[in-house]
Fold this sequence. Notes:
Blueprint: H1 6-30, E1 36-40, E2 43-46, H2 47-63, E3 68-71, E4 84-92, H3 94-99, E5 105-112, E6 115-123, E7 128-133, E8 138-140, E9 143-145, E10 157-161, H4 171-182, E11 185-187, H5 192-200, E12 206-209, H6 214-226, E13 230-232, E14 246-249, H7 252-265
Parallel strand pairs: 3-4, 10-11, 10-12
Antiparallel strand pairs: 1-2, 4-5, 5-6, 6-7, 7-8, 8-9, 12-14, 13-14
Helix pairs in contact: 1-2, 4-7, 5-6
Bound molecules: D-MYO-inositol-1-phosphate and calcium ion (3 copies).
One calcium ion binds near residues 89, 92, 215 and 216.
EC number: 3.1.3.25
Family: Belongs to the inositol monophosphatase superfamily.
Organism: Planctopirus ephydatiae
Amino acid sequence: LELPSAQMLEELLFAGTKAARLGGAMLESWRSRFTVTEKSRANLVTEADFASQKLIHEILLNQFPDHNFLGEEDLATRPTSSPFQWVVDPLDGTSNYVHGFPYYAVSIGLEFDGELIVGIIYDPTRHDLFTAIKGQGAFLNGQRVSCTDVIRIEDAMCIASLPTATSTSDPAVKRFLSMIGRSQTVQRTGSAALNLAYLAAGRIEAFWSSSLKPWDMAAGVLLVREAGGKVCKLNGQSFDLYQPEILATATESLQAQIQQIFVETT
Ligand code: IPD
Ligand code: CA
Ligand code: CA
Ligand code: CA
C-alpha cells in the first residue's frame, strides 16, 4: 500500500490534534465532579475517561467514517477494511488524574497498514502538545524537539512504568531497583504516554515497561522515533505495538547498557 499523501497526512494530524485538544478540555471540565470506579484493585476509571473517548471517537469518525478505532474504554466498533486505525488512550494516567496530580495526557496514534504514521500527545494541564508525522520529525507546540545525546547510563534520567499494585517480587520491580543503582535517577510518574513524549522532547533519557497496551504507546513510540530515539523490547528485539514490552532510549548506547543490566537482573 502506498503511504497517504503529504496533504492527507496533514489532514490526519490536524483532525487528531483537534480531537486531542478537545479530549483534554473534556478531562479538565470533569475535574472535581467525576466519580471513580475500580476496574480491578487500584485500576481506576472515571466518567472523564469515557467522556473524553466518546468525544475523540465522534470527531475522528465523523471526518473519517471508514477508519478503524481502538480505544481503551471500548466503544463497540465494527472492524472495517480500511488500512487506517486510530489507537486512542482518552486519559493516560487515570490514577494521577483522580488524585489531582497533574501528570496525565490524551494519546492518539494512527496506524496505516500496521505502521505508525501520526502521533499526538496532549497534556491539558500544561497545554503541551507533542506531535509527529512519520518521516517529518517530532514537535512540541510547533517547535522541533529531539532526544538528548546522553550516552552514559550514569548521566541518564529514566522513568519506568510498573502496573499499579505490583507485587514486590515482580521482575519489573527487580529491574526498577537495579536501574536505581546504575542510572542517575529512576522516576515512576504514572503516564506512559507522557513519559514517551518527555523522552522525545529531551527531558529524560530512557523509559521502559513490561505491562503496556497499544494505546499507552502508539503515539509516543512515533514521537520517540521521530526525535531520533530508539525503541525496542526489553531484550533488544524489534518492538511490537501489540505486545506489552517497551524499552525506549535517547541513544543506542543507552539501549545497549540497559538491556545488559536487565539481562544481569533476571
Ligand atoms: C496507565 C499508565 C501507567 C502505566 C499503566 C497504564 P491508564 O494507563 O500509562 O503509566 O504504568 O500500566 O495502565 O490506565 O492511566 O490509562
Ligand atoms: Ca486505564
Ligand atoms: Ca493508559
Ligand atoms: Ca487510559
